[in-house]
Specification:
Chain lengths: ~425, ~450
C-alpha cells in the first residue's frame, strides 16, 4: 500500500537524519494539514492582536461589565474562599459531583419537581455545555444508532462538530427568518411535521445562539404538542438559564412546558455564562427516563462513555456550583447578580437600537430589542462585518452575530455609528 | 392549539397501557391513578403522560468499572479491618488523602490574585503548556529548543490519551496500537471508543513476576511497520515492572527499525523513583534519537490533583511546522469534545512548576511520597518473607516500582483477599501500595499468604 511504502521511505529518511544528526523534514505528519481556525474563538485571537485603541470585541459570548472587563461574580468569590486550600482532590465519582447534579436538576426541572423525587432523571456532571451535548450525542449513537439529529438553522457552530464527531447524521430545520429577523414559525412547524416520527431535535431552551430569537410561550406549547403527535425526542441545550430574562425560572419555561406535556427530554446545562464559570467547565447532562431503574441504567451507560474520554469530571467548578446553589444566602446573591447581568444586556440592547435610529437609519432595528440573551443577530452580511473589522476594528463573527455582552456605555455609540455606516444605502 | 384528536404516540396506545400497567413502571402507574383521582384534566395530553415510553428502554445496566468500582465496594464494607488497595490514589501513613503543601500554597496565591475564570484557548493555558513540556523533555532538550513539540492541555492522562487516539484514527486509519499485556484497563476502552484497532504485546511474565522481555520484543517485531507502541514511561500500571535502561535502548532500536511510533503514557513522573528527571529518562532517550512520538502526561498522582483533571498530550515532530499543524488538528478534536480544558488545575501546575521555590518544595514532597512507598514495599517484603519462612521469593515486591504491585494472585485468590480479609484490590492481582501503611503491612502479608497458599 502506498502509505506503508511512504512510511518505509520516511523511516529511512528519519533514520538517516538521526544518524547524521541533521533534521530532515521527513515526518510522520506530512499529510496533516493545518486546521481551519475556529470561527468564534479565532475572532478573539484577531482582536487581541489588534493594536488599535478603538477596538471593540463583540465576538465571543463571554460576559463583560460596563467597563468591558470580565466579571467574577461575588457569589463565586465567596464560594472560592470557602473551598480554598482545605479540601482533598480525590477523584469524583465517574458521574461527577452528586451535590452539583442535584442542584443543577432543581434549577432545570424545578425545585419541587416530582421527577426528581421519583429519581427518574439520569444525570451526570459534564464538561460544560459542550461536554453535555457530546455525551448525549455519543449516547444517542450508541443506543439508537439509526437515529439522526435535527439542528436549527442557524445554531452555535460547534453543535455541528459535536454530532459529526459522534457520527450521528444531521438534518436541519428552519428556525430563523431573515426577512423579519425573527422566528420562521410556519416553516419550523412544517419541518417538525414532515420529519419522520420519533426524530431527535436539538432545541435551544432560551436565548437562542446565535440569533437571540426565542419562540413565545404559546409557540412553545404548539411545538410541544406537535412533538407529542410525532413522538419526537426533544433535546434541550440550555446554556443561558437566567441570562435571557434575568429569571432562571422564567428561562426554563420551555422545558417546563415540555415536561408538563409528558415528554421525556434530554437537557444540557452550562454554568459558563450564568455563573461566569467559563474556564471551569461546569455543566450537567440529564435524560428523563420512565422510572428509577431505567435512570440508573442510563446513568451507568453515560459514565461508560465518559470514562474513556476523561475518566471523571473536574471538581473545582462543580464545588463552586454546589456551594452557591445549596446555600440560600449565596443563591440569593447569585440570583441578584444574574439579574444584574441580564439587565445590563437589555439596557445595551435598548441603547444600541436607539443610537442607530438616532443616526437616521431608515432600516428597521427593532430586532435588536426583540431578540433576547447574549446575542443579537444583526442581519449584517459577511462583507459588512468585514468592513466593521477592517475599517472600525470591531470584532464579531461573520454571520453578523453581535455579542451584546461586549457592548458598553463607553462603546455603544461608536458601535452604532459603525453599524450605521456599513449598513446605510450607498 | 388544535382541538382533541386521538394522539398517536407511535409506540403504544392508551389501550396498551391499560392492558400492561406493569410495563411502564411505578411512576407511570401512579400517574395513571392521578389522572382518574384528582380530577385534573389535561385531556389527551395527560393520557399521553401515562403511556410515554422512553426511547432508551432497551438500555441495560453497564458493568461496574473494574477499578473505580472497587472503591465503591470498599466504601460499602462495614468491617473494621478493611483495607482499600484499589484505586491508585496516594494516601499518607494515616491512610488519609494528601493535598500537597505546594498545591495549597499555589491555590492561596491564586485566591489572592483573584484571577478571572475566562475560557482558556482550546489548547489550554499557555504557561502550563510551556512548563509541562519542559518538565517532561528537559528545558534544554532540542525538541523544546527547536519548537518541535505540539503540546495541548487535556483532561489528565485519560483525556490526553483520548485526543491522541482520535488523532491516530483520523490520520492513521490503517494503523494499530499495541498495548502491553496487561495494561491499565481504561487503555482499551479509550482506543475502542476512538475506533482505533489494537493488539497486545507480551509484557508480564507470571513465572518470574517480572518482564517478559523476549516476548515483548518478539511481538513488537511481528507487528506491521508503522504501528503505535503504547509504552508506560515509568512505574508500569498495573505491574510496577519497568524495563531497565539497557532494555529501553533495545526497545528503541527495534521501534526505529520497524518504523513504529512510540506512544508514552507518563502518569507517574516523579512518583516512581522520586526524581522527576530520572522518571523521564525513557521518554528523553527516545526523543534524543530524533524519533517522532506521542507522550500523554498526568498530574493526578504526582501533584495529587486527581479531580482537577490536568494533563497534556505532547506530540514530538521533526519540524516546528509539523508541530503547528498537528497542534491545530488536536484542537479540532478537542473542540467538539469539551471546547476548552478546565483552568484550575492548569494554573496550579503552572504556579508550582514555574516558581523555583515552589518547584523545589514540590520535589521534596515528591521524594517523601515516593519514599513512603519504597518503605512500605520493604516492610511488606520483610513481613511476607518472615511469615512465609522464606519459602517463596517475594523480592519482586522490591524490584517493582511505583504505586502498584502485581502480586501474582489470580482472580480467585484476589476474591479471597476481599471476601475473607476485606482487602480491596483489582481482580488482576494488583495492589496499590499508595493505600498501604506500614502499620497494616503485617495484616496484608497474612492475607496474601493465606490467599496464595489456601486458594487456587
Amino acid at each position: 500500500m502506498a502509505s506503508s511504502m511512504c512510511r518505509g521511505i520516511i523511516g529511512k529518511g528519519r533514520r538517516a537524519a538521526a544518524l547524521g544528526r541533521s533534521m530532515s523534514t521527513a515526518s510522520w505528519w506530512g499529510h496533516v494539514e493545518p486546521a481551519a481556525k475556529d470561527p468564534i474563538l479565532g475572532v478573539t485571537e484577531a482582536f487581541l492582536a489588534d493594536p488599535s485603541p478603538d477596538k471593540v470585541n463583540v465576538g465571543v459570548g463571554a460576559y463583560r461589565d460596563d467597563n468591558g472587563k470580565p466579571v467574577v461574580l461575588e457569589c463565586v468569590r465567596e464560594a472560592e474562599k470557602r473551598i480554598a486550600g482545605n479540601l482533598n482532590m480525590e477523584y469524583l465519582p465517574m458521574g461527577g459531583s452528586i451535590k452539583m447534579i442535584e442542584e443543577s436538576l432543581k434549577l432545570a426541572y424545578g425545585d419541587d419537581s416530582e421527577l426528581i423525587k421519583d429519581k427518574r432523571i439520569a444525570a451526570v456532571q459534564a464538561l460544560s455545555g459542550t461536554g453535555a451535548c457530546r455525551l448525549f450525542a455519543d449516547f444517542q449513537k450508541r443506543f439508537l444508532p439509526d437515529s439522526q439529529i435535527y439542528i436549527p438553522i442557524p445554531t452555535w457552530a460547534n453543535h455541528h462538530n459535536i454530532w459529526r464527531d459522534a457520527h450521528v447524521p444531521q438534518r436541519t430545520f428552519h428556525y430563523y427568518h431573515p426577512e423579519t429577523k425573527g422566528l420562521d414559525f410556519a416553516a419550523l412547524m412544517d419541518d417538525i411535521k414532515n420529519a419522520p416520527n420519533g426524530s431527535f431535535f436539538l432545541l435551544h431552551a432560551c436565548a437562542h445562539n446565535p440569533t437571540g430569537v426565542d419562540p413565545s410561550e404559546d409557540q412553545w406549547r404548539e411545538i410541544s404538542y406537535q412533538f407529542k403527535v410525532k413522538n419526537h425526542f426533544p433535546f434541550f441545550d440550555m446554556a443561558y438559564q437566567g441570562f435571557a430574562s434575568g429569571d432562571p425560572e422564567r428561562d426554563a419555561k420551555a422545558i417546563r412546558i415540555f415536561l408538563e406535556d409528558g415528554h421525556m427530554i434530554g437537557c444540557a446545562q452550562s454554568f459558563a455564562k450564568n455563573m461566569g464559570l467559563y474556564g471551569q467547565r461546569a455543566g450537567c447532562l440529564s435524560i428523563l427516563c420512565e422510572n428509577e431503574i431505567q435512570a440508573v441504567a442510563v446513568k451507568s451507560q453515560l459514565q461508560q462513555i465518559a470514562r474513556p474520554m476523561y475518566s471523571n469530571p473536574p471538581v473545582h467548578g462543580a464545588l463552586l456550583v454546589s456551594v452557591i446553589l445549596s446555600d440560600p444566602v449565596l443563591k440569593s446573591l447569585w440570583l441578584e447578580e444574574v439579574k444584574g447581568m441580564a439587565n445590563r444586556i437589555i439596557g445595551m440592547r435598548n441603547a444600541l437600537r436607539k443610537n442607530i435610529e438616532n443616526l437616521g437609519s431608515n432600516l428597521s432595528w427593532e430586532h435588536i430589542t426583540n431578540q433576547i440573551g447574549m446575542f443579537c443577530y444583526s442581519g449584517l452580511k459577511p462583507e459588512q462585518v468585514d468592513r466593521l473589522t477592517n475599517d472600525f476594528h470591531i470584532y464579531m463573527t461573520r454571520n453578523g452575530r453581535i455579542s451584546m455582552a461586549g457592548v458598553t456605555t463607553g462603546n455603544v455609540g461608536y458601535l452604532a455609528n459603525a453599524i450605521h455606516e456599513v449598513s446605510k444605502a450607498t | 392549539m388544535a382541538s382533541s384528536t386521538m394522539l398517536s404516540t407511535g409506540r403504544s396506545s392508551p389501550a396498551a397501557f391499560m392492558r400492561n400497567p406493569q410495563k411502564l413502571g411505578p411512576a407511570a402507574g401512579r400517574r395513571g391513578r392521578d389522572f382518574f383521582l384528582n380530577g385534573k384534566n389535561f385531556g389527551r395530553v395527560r393520557m399521553a403522560v401515562a403511556v410515554n415510553v422512553s426511547r432508551f428502554e432497551g438500555v441495560s445496566m453497564a458493568p461496574p468499572d473494574p477499578i473505580l468500582g472497587v472503591s465503591e465496594a470498599f466504601t460499602a464494607d462495614t468491617s473494621d479491618v478493611k483495607l482499600n488497595l484499589g484505586v491508585g490514589a496516594y494516601r499518607t501513613e494515616e491512610l488519609q488523602p494528601y493535598v500537597l503543601n505546594v498545591v495549597k500554597k499555589a491555590e492561596n496565591l491564586m485566591l489572592e490574585r483573584g484571577e478571572n475564570k475566562e475560557y482558556l484557548p482550546i489548547e489550554g493555558l499557555a504557561a502550563f503548556n510551556k512548563v509541562t513540556a519542559e518538565l517532561l523533555f528537559g528545558a534544554d532538550s532540542p525538541v523544546i529548543q527547536e519548537g518541535r513539540v505540539a503540546t495541548v492541555q487535556s483532561l489528565s492522562g485519560t483525556g490526553s490519551l483520548r485526543l491522541a487516539a482520535a488523532f491516530i484514527q483520523r490520520y492513521f486509519p490503517d494503523a494499530k496500537v499495541l498495548i502491553s499485556s496487561p495494561s491499565w484497563g481504561n487503555h482499551k476502552n479509550i482506543f475502542n471508543d476512538a475506533r482505533v484497532p489494537w493488539a497486545e504485546y507480551r509484557y508480564y511474565d507470571p513465572r518470574t513476576v517480572g518482564l517478559d522481555f523476549e516476548g515483548m520484543l518478539e511481538d513488537i517485531e511481528a507487528a506491521q511497520d508503522g504501528s503505535f507502541i503504547l509504552l508506560h514511561g515509568c512505574a508500569h500500571n498495573p505491574t510496577g515492572i519497568d524495563p531497565t535502561p539497557e532494555q529501553w535502548a533495545k526497545i528503541a532500536d527495534l521501534i526505529e527499525q520497524k518504523n513504529h511510533i512510540p506512544f508514552f503514557d507518563v502518569a507517574y513522573q516523579g512518583f516512581a523513583s522520586g526524581s522527576l528527571d530520572e522518571d523521564a529518562s525513557s521518554v528523553r532517550t527516545f526523543a534524543s534519537r530524533g524519533l517522532e512520538l506521542f507522550v500523554a502526561q498526568s498530574y493526578s498522582k504526582n501533584l495529587g490533583l486527581y479531580s482537577e483533571r490536568i494533563g497534556a498530550i505532547n506530540v514530538v515532530s521533526s519540524s516546528p511546522d509539523a508541530a503547528a499543524r498537528v497542534k491545530s488538528q488536536l484542537k479540532r478534536i478537542a473542540r467538539p469534545m469539551y471546547s476548552n480544558p478546565p483552568v484550575h488545575g492548569a494554573r496550579i501546575v503552572a504556579n508550582v512548576v514555574g516558581d523555583p521555590n515552589l518547584f523545589n518544595e514540590w520535589k521534596q514532597e515528591m521524594e517523601l511520597m515516593a519514599g513512603r512507598i519504597k518503605n512500605v514495599r520493604q516492610r511488606l517484603f520483610d513481613n511476607l518473607s518472615e511469615k512465609d519462612n522464606n519459602v517463596k521469593d517475594w523480592s519482586f515486591i522490591l524490584k517493582q516500582i511505583g504505586m502498584f504491585s502485581y502480586t501474582g494472585l489470580n482472580k480467585a485468590q484476589s476474591d479471597n483477599m476481599t471476601d475473607k480479609w476485606h482487602v480491596y484490590m483489582t481482580k488482576d492481582g494488583r495492589i496499590s501500595l499508595a493505600g498501604l501503611s506500614l502499620a497494616k503491612c503485617e495484616y496484608l502479608a497474612e492475607a496474601i499468604i493465606d490467599s496464595f497458599y489456601k486458594v487456587s
